Structure formats: C-alpha cells, structure tokens
Amino acid sequence: MRRDERIKLLAVASLVLVVTVLHYATPSQDKEFHDIYRRLYYIPIILGALWFGLRGGILTSLVVSIFYLPHILLQWQTRPLTNLDQYLEILLYNVIGVLTGFLAERERLGARTLAQIFLDAGAKLGEAKRHRAELSRCKLCKADLRGADLSQANLSEADLTGARLRRANLTRSIRIRTKVNKWAMKGAYIAGPTAYTD
Prior knowledge:
- This protein has four helices and no strands.
- By secondary structure, it is mainly α.
- It has a domain at 3-121.
- It is rod-shaped.
C-alpha cells in the first residue's frame, strides 16, 4: 500500500474512532449531541468510498455499523422509537457506503477511459502529423521529378524537333538535287552531246 493510501486509511479509521468515542462518552440524556454524532459517521463512510471505491465504502459502513450497534443496544434500550430511528440510520450508513463507492468506481473507470482516449488521440495526432510531413516531402519529390520529367521531355522534344528539321532539310535538299538533276538532264538532252564538256 502506498504512503498516501495509508494516510487516507488512517484518516478514515481515526474519524470512525473519534465519533465512536464521542458516542460512548456522551450520556444518553444529551440526545442532541448523539444526533450530531450519528450524522458525523457519514463523513468517514463517504471518504472511505471516495478514496477506496466500493470496497472502501462497504467496509467503512460495516465497521461503523458494528461500532454503533452496541451503543444502541446498551444505551438506548429504554426508548423504542429512538431505536427504530437509529436502526434505520445503520441501514442508511450501508446504503450510502455502497452507493457512494459504486459511483466513485464508475467515475474512476470513466476517468481512466477518458485518459486512454486522450492518449490514443494524441498518438493518432502525432502519427497524422508524421504522415502529413511525409506526404509533403513526397509532394516536393514529385514536383522535382515532374520538373525533371518536363525538362527532359522538353529536351527530347527539342531533340526530336531538331532531328525532324534535319530530316526535313535533308529531304528538301534531296528533292532540290533531284529537280536540278532532272533539269540538267533535260538541258543535256536538249543541248545534245556537246553540253557536257568540262
């Protein structure tokens, strides 16, 4: 058991003992004080339930009931109506202990669940940020590749254009030579065999 839990347990036990001693030390003629002391038992019951859950609430209410029952039987046996009220008070101690302990445990479970949800959300947010950074790096890489592809495409297009132009020029010069040769042949045919003198 941790130190803070020991301190809480000691506080609950001390409160129960103090209220019990007050009950037993006060004469039964001082009914008003006993009514106050009876209500003071709720403080350690609620604290036990809040600090130690359902088990703490039940255990504290049972200990209070065990300590308070002999007081009723020994000091209040001559007043039956007061006894009924005190027996019902013992029942309420146990109901409050169980109910407060149950609600305290549900609250703890809800807090743990909420904390786990926040941790998971934080982890997923961190993962999303990493993916976002990777995605932006990939986009930059793709842009660089696209730029490289475009520049290569422009270069290869320029190469193709130059090759086409060379081929077109070559074809044109071949056509021109062919025409010139044809004209020359026509001229030689027209001029006769003497046209080819060097």
